Structure formats: structure tokens, C-alpha cells
Amino acid sequence: MTAASIVAAYEEPYARRTSRTAEQLLAAAVRGALGAAGLGHGDVDGLGVSSFSLAPDHAIDLAWRLGLRLDWIMQDPHGGASGINLLQHAVRAIEAGDARVVVLVAGDHLDRAAFARLTATYNRATAEALTPLPLRGPNALFALLTQRHAAAHGLADADYAQVPLSQRRWAARNPGAVYRAPLSLDEYLAAPVVAAPLRRFDCVPVVAGADALVLTAGGPGVRVRAVASRHNPDGQEGDGIVTGLAQVADRLWAGAGVGPGEIDLACVYDDYPVMALAQLADLGCAPDLHAFLHGRLARDGWPLNPSGGQLSAGQAGAAGGMHGLVEAVLQLLGRAGERQVDRARLALVTGYGMVLYRYGACANAAVLEGVA
What sequence ranges are listed for the domain Thiolase C-terminal (predicted)? Predict the structure, then answer.
């Protein structure tokens, strides 16, 4: 178990529309997290940032505008994997004595035009090979992945529906989720098709917001039992329905000293239901996907993304990579309000993303434990 403690987590409320800039959202999240930790800006000597829309500013510009004097700073551009990347580096920095109090923050404000520009120019491969088709963002790519995954595992639309349906039930207890109204299977199946077989409720709603964590050297809070990452595991030449987590699962669980059956809740990166299921399968949490979906998830109400996940709470750009961490920490600190998971002690958090050409190339996971 690491010597660093996560002592506070905060989410600046998500909104479908706002006049605030990315800088203002990030600053608000930093203030909220420090307030939850009982600390001030003057206590901070480390900062990690992830944001697509902070540009042309960088982490150091945000530090300057916040009045932070730092010994350690980092900026991570890797989207859905950025939160756990930042966490891994921050823990190592504290253990090495490079920093004592680190704030990690991620967030974005991407209006319709900004989101369209981001998805059209995400990287050179996208701009040169995909946008001219046009694919109009990642939905078409993940529709193809869902088709392939369904054929490989014998799953139908009503099976994949169990992920957004389960998470919507949790979202009803989260005042910060943008979608909280009950969702039935009939409503799910009747929703407009975005890219077959993906329907509206299979795709994350784009929102504005930010998430932040505060880490300190020791003390009560949440500890990282293990973290593991695997990036570009197959050079974009695999089938895309197995993530890099499959290559590090054994190392993750051995480092954590627990197995997947001992986890009390999971916060899995859920840009699409298919990828949430792929990550759970890769980590040994759902060896039989059909049984998992209709048994453990639908019948037993296992806490998968008890915030509602991105599918119901929303995806605030790069904050999507921090959202699951914030939810897991709140749960393990016993501060999740009405959606609090009873006797939550161990949480699994995953990150996934950064489409290089056909599918995400970055994957990581952490096992967290609440420590009194």
C-alpha cells in the first residue's frame, strides 16, 4: 500500500450549458477539493492537470492564475486514462519527497463547435484518415466495436442495455448527474439510433465541469493498494474488444493483495457500454458477461459506477478520466450521500481512451482502499 493518502475529492457540478471557461471550472474544482480537505492554496506544492480546452494555456498557467508556488507539476493529455496516470505519478512524487500536498484536477468546457473541432482533429490519423469520411466523432468506431463484441460474446441490444439501465438507477440518487429520470428497457430500445447498434443512451452526454483530488503524505484517507497501466498494447492491430488491462490484470491483483471478487464497487470508464464490459472482463470481474449483466448487475444491483457513470452523470471532456476516481474516493470516505455503498472498503477504478485510429490505446486501473 502506498504512503500517500487521498484525503479529499470534489466535483464541480456538471452542466449541459455554462458561460464559464475551462480555467474557471478547473479553479473552482481546486477550491472545492482544498476546502473539503481543510487546506488552502498556500499548502499546495504539487499540481497535476488534464484538460483539452485549457489550451493555449498549460498547467503552469493555471498554477500562476491560482497563485500556487510548486515543487512538482504535471500535465497529462491522455483523456480517459489521464486521471489514473496523474494519480500514479502524484503518489510516486509524494513517496519520493518531491511534494507534500498535491492537487490533481481535470475538466473541460466544450461547446458544440469546440467538441466538433476536437473530435475532427484529435490526432493526425483522425484528421487525415477518418474526418474526411466523415465519421463525425467516435460513435461510428465504437458502433463497429460493439458489433464485433456482440458477435464474439453472443450479446444482444437488451443485454448491453443493462449497463445504462443499472447506472441510471444509481444516478437517480446523485444530485450531480445530468440524467436522473428513470429509464426503462422499452425507452432505451425506442431511443434514436446514433450509429447502429448504438442508441442515444449508449453515448455519453457532453457536459462542462471539473473533478479534483487532494493527496497528502500519510494520514487517514484513501490509499492506493495497486495501480497498473498498459498503453498501445497491440499497435492498433488487434480486434479492439480486448484492452491493455488484460495484460496487466494479474499484476494489478497481485499488487493489491486481493482478487476481483473482493471489490465492493467499481468505477469503470464508460464512454460506451461495450467498453465498460470489455474492461470488466479483462480484469476478471465478469468472466461470463451474460450472467454478469442479468444477474450481478440487473438482479443484485452490484455498484457499477454508482455516480451514474459518464452515461448518466455526463462526460466533461478530460474530467471523464477523473470522474470515477472522485466517485470511488467519496464512497470510500463515506461521503457519497444517498448513493453511499454500504460498508465500502475496496474500490476498482479504470481508465480507458485516446483513440489513435480504430480504438482506445490507453488503459489503466487502480485498486483503492479506505483507511481510517
Answer: 228-356
Q: Is the dihedral of CA 60, 64, 65, 68 positive or negative?
A: positive
Q: What are the pLDDT digits (tens) for 234-278? A: 999 999 999 999 999 999 999 999 999 999 999 999 999 999 999
Helices (H), 134-241: 139-153, 157-160, 162-171, 185-190
Position 327 scores a pLDDT of: 98
- All structural domains of the chain with their residue ranges: 4-112+207-217
Q: At what angle do helices 162-171 and 273-282 cross, to 10 degrees?
A: 100
Lookup: cell for 175: 444530485
pLDDT at 136 over 90: no
CA pair distance 71, 106, nearest whole angstrom: 20
Amino acid at 335: R
Please give the DSSP secondary-structure letter assigned to residue 295: I
Residue 188 contacts by C-beta under 8 Å, 6 or more apart in sequence? 161, 164, 165, 199, 201
| 364 exposure class (CB count in 10 Å sphere: 0-12, 13-18, 19+) | buried
C-beta neighbour count of 207 within 10 angstroms: 24
Reading the block at residue 14, the C-alpha cell is 456538471
What is the phi/psi pair of residue 38, to 5°? 70, 30
* CATH 3.40.47.10 at 4-112+207-217, yes or no: yes
Rounded to the nearest angstrom, the gap between the alpha carbon of residue 100 and the centroid of all alpha carbons in its chain is 25
Distance of CA 118 to the CA centre of its chain: 19
pLDDT, one tens digit per residue, over 189-241 is: 999 999 999 999 999 999 999 999 999 998 899 999 999 999 999 999 999 99
Report the alpha-carbon distance of residue 208 to residue 96 in Å, rounded: 35
**C-alpha grid cell for residue 254?**
497481485
